[in-house]
Amino acid sequence: MGTTTEFTTTNDYELGRMADGFAAFVERYPAFSRTRLLDQWRETEYSRLDASGQIYLDYTGGGLYGESQLLGHMDLLRTSVLGNPHSANPSSLAMTDLVEETRRYILTYFNASPDEYIAVFTPNASGALKLVGEAYPFTPASHYILTFDNHNSVNGIREFAKGKGAQVKYVPLTRPELRLDREALDATLGTVDGDQRNLFAFPAQSNFSGVKHPLDLIDEAHHNGVDVLLDAAAYVPTNGLDLGTVKPEFVTVSFYKMFGYPTGIGALLISRSIFRKMNRPWFAGGTVNFASVQGDGHYLAANEAAFEDGTINYLNIPAIKTGLQHLETVGIDTIAERVQCLTGWLLENLLSLQHSNGKPMVRIYGPTDTQMRGGTVTLNFYGPDERLLDYRRIEELANARGISLRTGCFCNPGAGEIAEGLTADDMLAGLKDGPDMSLPHFVQVIQHRGNKSAGAIRISTGLVTNFEDVYRFMNFAADFRDKTNLNIGKVTFDIQSCRVIRDGS
């Protein structure tokens, strides 16, 4: 795209304003013109977005698939006879070839030498993380080190670590940018015994704030005798990851976050050096070379087969190669360029929003520029009285405008607690009610403890976000000027345990 583009709005006045806004945008971000292929894809591969009037700003929640991905995969299924790969019949062997071809392609995509890494298919990144937690050789002399900024599936590994007697240590974040406190990390790494098995886990990119944590942390941990688990799920949809350059022991990804289809498949990349030290606490169908009931024994299969429980999602696995090739067609650097331009514009314009009395309308959690950050922007709206606007109601109003965004704590409680200034006492107040505590109840608890939030609004740009998407979101955001909770109304649904609970009437 040069300095013109097509917009789908039908209002002539709004069309003119948007065209003016776009001209100013490309002047401010000239690199955007290098991403014109993605606008062509918007019209061909992703035409359903504009046909349905959808503004999709939830790429951190899940990517979108292109039409050619579906057509290519459906053509494979339509013309092939493919069976369960756990056999040696013709249909099984054909499927095995496709699975192994995809496995090799994944390693190639991430420049992971098959001499150094194996690729295990998992249900998602969380399934990959569970494999690490249950099989990592923690001992009472071990440390499990993780950052406040981690997905709950990474936090959950602490239960495996504690179960084996290991020490669990969290490294704090700095405010307001929510970056890792490097001095605290250095001090923590300095306390471990490098002769023991120790594990440090961190996200390459935060799913809460969009912060990109530096990958040189991997070498720093190695220097201190600590293995590294890199959660790359939020990073790889818009960034390249070269495992020939950085070499963590474990990498976890979910493919639907990268290219939308298929869902239900992730991967755990394991360094062969640590794989030999892993100890699975159980076995399943497909993971053993031999098992006996009367002999009460078993022998695990070699390499990745020892970790792929039961029958893998074999019919969908070839779609991963198709999806990776889809990204390679446009290039991950092109995607990163577009995301950076649009995110930069969003941040600048959100920060400029003010009420008539001069009070800011939004608070952004994390970096307010594009330096070492991705396309995830988490924020809350505040009224002219500086009172927090209910993020759940804002999501409801966004729904009515065809805007897909996400609200809540995004399964990342540590970053959210630090971002909003929630204290240990605040969190203990939430935990004291036991397992009956829900997010709606916790929102009420926190509201009674001060003008704090137990959740936020997250918007995220991605593969085929265009200027019209972010422009229309900004128009939506501007509508909250001089609005209070009384003006915007009460929310009519609840979110409990990450599921929307609707009124059954």
- Straight-line N-to-C gap: 48 Å
Count of all domains: 2
Give the rounded overall mean pLDDT: 91
How is the biggest beta sheet arranged? 7 strands, mixed
Tell me how many strands there are. Answer: 19
Architecture of the largest domain in CATH? 3-Layer(aba) Sandwich
Categorize the overall geometry.
globular
- Counting H and I runs of at least 4 residues, what is the number of helices? 20
Widest sheet: strand ordering? 2-10-9-8-7-3-4
Low-confidence residue ranges: 499-505
- What is the CATH homologous superfamily assignment of the largest domain? Type I PLP-dependent aspartate aminotransferase-like (Major domain)
Task: Give the helix proportion (percent range).
Answer: 25-40%
CATH topology of the largest domain: Aspartate Aminotransferase, domain 2
Round the Cα radius of gyration to an integer and report it. Answer: 24 Å
**Secondary-structure content class:** alpha/beta
Question: In terms of quaternary structure, what is this?
Answer: single chain
The portion of residues forming beta strands comes to 15-25%
CATH class category label of the largest domain? Alpha Beta
